[in-house]
Design goal:
Layout (H helix, E strand, L loop, with lengths): L13 E10 L2 E11 L4 E5 L6 H8 L7 E6 L13 E4 L13 H6 L3 H4 L7 H13 L15 H14 L4 E5 L7 H16 L3 E5 L3 H5 L3 E5 L3 E5 L1 H4 L2 H8 L4 E3 L6 E3 L14
Parallel strand pairs: 3-7, 3-8, 5-6, 6-7
Antiparallel strand pairs: 1-2, 1-4, 8-9, 10-11
């Protein structure tokens, strides 16, 4: 073997240039440049209405771009050959009691991305479903209907569904907001495990503490205010730019800012016109 060192170049999981998304007359994202590293956990942070969920939806191919370009795992968002490689987990909502669907059935839906709606499940599919339920500690709930569960249990079911897809890219929209401590810790542990297993995780969150645990952070306010390692992004100056009139305080230690959540935000981009 020669003494030449060959450096392996890893392409970003998500690459966006000038990403702009408009709903009616309201601009949700304006001229955003985003680069999300592969094999890492990225936290999307920012005040309400800052575009976190919109960016996740754009990555998943669920909303069109008004301008700019976006590639996901080297392909256009929403491409057929991406459907099995990208899993999108929404926030839990109250379940309809008239929908008689069990926990196992919800998690099993994850395998349809690869098999199709009428595809026959293989032993590998069933193992993926069972393993996801085991990781989220909901196996004992497998035969219960979704509407019977607490909010924390339902959210764990949805995360298990995303996990059972065995996707390369896992998108999570505020997966632990408002949850009980048990559900919160279990989901965060699973996120860490997915990243350790080689998956790319992008998680929207309001919690700056959760963002500090990520490998990469994108601070949004209708545009990208800052992007990079947590200690470079989560700074008092950046947070004041993103949260505007919201009070930013350094609470736990010098250089560790916190947001006063009782003050309404004024984001960096005026999206009212």
């Amino acid at each position: 073997m020669s003494g030449i060192l060959i450096e392996r170049v890893t392409e970003p999981a998500v690459q966006g240039r000038g990403v702009t998304v408009i709903f009616g007359r309201r601009a949700a994202l304006v001229d955003c440049d985003v680069t999300l590293p592969a094999g890492a956990t990225t936290a999307l942070v920012g005040p309400n209405g800052s575009g976190k969920s919109t960016l996740l939806s754009a990555i998943a191919g669920l909303v069109p771009l008004a301008a700019g370009s976006l590639t996901v795992l080297g392909r256009r968002p929403g491409s057929n050959n991406l459907s099995a490689r990208v899993a999108y987990v929404l926030q839990s909502t109250p379940a309809n009691e008239s929908l008689p669907i069990t926990v196992r059935e919800v998690v099993t839906m994850a395998r349809f991305a690869a098999r199709g709606l009428f595809g026959r499940l293989t032993p590998a599919d069933r193992h993926a479903v069972q393993d996801a339920m085991d990781q989220l500690e909901i196996a004992e709930l497998a035969d219960r209907h979704l509407w019977e569960l607490s909010g924390g249990q339902r959210q764990r079911v949805l995360v298990a569904q995303g996990l059972a897809q065995e996707a390369d890219l896992l998108l999570l929209d505020e997966p632990v907001t408002g949850l009980d401590l048990t559900s919160r810790q279990r989901i965060l542990t699973v996120v860490d495990d997915a990243r350790a297993g080689g998956s790319t995780v992008v998680m929207a969150t309001h919690d700056l503490g959760d963002a500090e645990r990520a490998d990469h952070v994108v601070l949004l306010a209708g545009c990208v205010v800052a992007s990079g390692p947590p200690d470079e992004v989560i700074t008092t100056d950046n947070l004041r730019r993103a949260y505007g009139g919201r009070h930013v305080r350094e609470e736990r230690a010098p250089g560790v800012p916190r947001i006063d959540e009782h003050v309404h935000p004024h984001t960096a981009v005026d999206r009212s016109r």
